[in-house]
Write a structure and sequence with these properties.
10 strands, globular, 4 helices, ten-stranded antiparallel beta sheet, alpha+beta, about 15% helix, about 40% strand
């Protein structure tokens, strides 16, 4: 059976950045919410999973491709569905279009279920997840990148302390907060003269309240930055951002 979750979303003022468009952090928030709500629609969100299987879904990586991000007050439609599944992991796609079906962004996110007690991967067949689910073609045709850039202390950009407000249901730092830390490395000139075209992030370890994570940043290709986030000596996050050398087109009201 095909399982598809769909939702109408208006681009709110709190979700736009200084360009007047939906920001990258907020796009990743939509991606995360749509995945969470998809799992809820099939009876397999983390509240259910913890109660029935003492487990939780965790993100391992997300690849986001941007066509154009919507302005404030744009009416959009988001949909999420499973695009691949294996014994221990699956990919959930999220596609955001405007009300006229023009593409805005598309993403795929790799997920695994972790047993709280054993701290090991669960077989998807052993947890509360639809056994009759049929996968659909992914909207993102590119494979996940390896994100193997090397960094030195010369690439250190900033340090961010983790507060309780940064943590979520799992008591670990919310995934999208790492994206905010990454975007904090850019100045206003970048926001005003560049347009983000794609973003990829890989989650390796966890951090929690009281930790201080260090963000490293380097230019690894033309119109590309790579990032590394460490908690002490442990790698927490790897990421890559691609952009175009053009300013976002501003709406008439700016």
């Amino acid at each position: 059976m095909k399982y598809l979750y769909e939702k109408k979303i208006d681009t709110a003022y709190t979700t736009i950045d200084r360009s007047g468009r939906l920001g990258l952090v907020e796009s990743m928030n939509i991606n995360q919410d749509m995945i969470t709500e998809f799992f809820g629609s099939v009876g397999s969100d983390n509240l259910v999973l913890r109660k029935k299987n003492n487990a939780a879904w965790v993100y391992t990586r997300t690849k986001l491709q941007i066509e154009q991000l919507p302005f404030w007050n744009t009416k959009t439609v988001a949909k999420s569905y499973v695009s691949s599944i294996s014994p221990i992991r699956l990919d959930v796609d999220v596609v955001l279009n405007d009300e006229y079906k023009n593409p805005l962004f598309k993403a795929k996110t790799q997920m695994c279920a972790i047993d709280f007690e054993k701290r090991s991967l669960c077989k998807i067949s052993d947890i509360c997840f639809p056994k009759d689910l049929e996968v659909e073609n992914s909207s993102v045709t590119d494979s996940y990148s390896k994100l193997n850039a090397e960094f030195t202390e010369e690439d250190f950009a900033l340090e961010e302390k983790i507060y309780a407000s940064d943590t979520d249901f799992t008591h670990h730092t919310n995934n999208t907060h790492y994206v905010k830390f990454i975007m904090n490395t850019f100045d206003t000139e970048f926001y005003d003269t560049k347009t983000i075209t794609s973003f990829e992030i890989q989650f390796a370890k966890e951090s929690t309240a009281g930790d201080a994570v260090r963000v490293y940043k380097k230019k690894t290709a033309e119109n590309q930055f790579s990032f590394l986030i460490k908690n002490g000596e442990e790698i927490v996050v790897k990421a890559e951002l691609n952009y175009a050398d053009k300013a976002p087109v501003l709406p008439d009201w700016v």
